[in-house]
Amino acid sequence: MPEAHPNYPSADKHADAIEATYREDVAEGMASGPHTIDEAAHLCNCTPNQLIFGALAGKPEGRYHGYFRTIHNGTVVHVNNWIRLNMPGRTTAPTLHDAATALYRANMSGLHTLLKTDITKAQGRIRISQKDWKYIPAFINNNAYINTCETYGVASAQYYWGRLATLLIRILYYLFPDIPWIMVYVDDFLIMLPDGDQGNLATSILLMLTALGCPLSWK
C-alpha cells in the first residue's frame, strides 16, 4: 500500500531551490501551497495521516547547471506500483534505429532540416483528479505543497503526456502535410522539414504549437 517516505539528503541540501520550483508551479497553476499539513489534508479531502508525502530529491541540471529539477520518487512510496496496475500500456522513446530509418527514408526524397523543440515542464502540466492529490503531495521547509498536476517521478506523468504529445503530432501532420516525420523524446519534438522553405515552415509550426498552448523553451 502507498505510504509516506522521508525526503532524500539532496532535498535537505537543496531545500530552498526545491521550494522555489514549487512556488513557480503554484504561480503557473500546477500546484497548491504552501500549506500546513492540516490545510493540505482538508484540500485533499483526507486525514493528515493519509497524505502520502513523496521522497523528494533535487539536482542541478543543464550544461551549466542553470536548471534545477525536483524529483518526486513515486516508486519508494509505492504509488507507482498502483498506477501501473491501472495503466493500459507505457510510452517508449524512438531508438537510434528509428531515427536512422526516418532520416534515410526522408532524405531519399531530398535533403531535410531538423527542427528540435523543447516543451517546458511537459509532464507536469497534465491535471490529475482531486481524489488523487493525496498520493503525491510534497513536504519541504516545513511546508506542504499539493501537486494538482502530474510531477516528475510519478509513473502516470510520462504516459499521459505521451498521449497528449501524440495528439499534438497528429494536428501538426494534418496542418502541415509537408512534414515527413516527427519523433518525440520525452518532452522534445524532433521534426523533419524538407529543404527549400524550411524557415517559413518552422516558424509556422512554432506559432501553431504556441497557439495550442504549448509552453516552448525559447532558449
The order of strands across the largest sheet is: 1-6-5
CA gyration radius, whole angstroms: 20 Å
What would you call the shape? elongated
Estimate percent helicity.
Answer: 25-40%
Mean pLDDT: 90
Structural class assignment: alpha+beta
Order of helices and strands: HHEHEEHHEEEHEEH
Biggest pleated-sheet summary? 3 strands, antiparallel
> How many separate helices?
7
Number of strands: 8
What share of residues are in beta strands?
15-25%
Describe this entry's structure for a reader.
The model has no long low-confidence stretch (mean pLDDT 90). This protein is 36% helix and 21% strand. A hairpin with a 5-residue loop joins β2 and β3. It is an alpha+beta fold. The protein has helices spanning 9-13, 15-27, 37-43, 79-85, 96-107, 155-175, 198-211; strands spanning 31-35, 55-61, 67-73, 112-118, 138-140, 143-147, 182-185, 188-194. The chain is elongated, with a radius of gyration of 20 Å.
List keywords for this structure.
219 residues, alpha+beta, 3-stranded antiparallel beta sheet
Question: What topology does this entry show?
Answer:
Layout: H1 9-13, H2 15-27, E1 31-35, H3 37-43, E2 55-61, E3 67-73, H4 79-85, H5 96-107, E4 112-118, E5 138-140, E6 143-147, H6 155-175, E7 182-185, E8 188-194, H7 198-211
Antiparallel strand pairs: 1-6, 2-3, 4-8, 5-6, 7-8
Summarize the structure.
This protein is 36% helix and 21% strand.
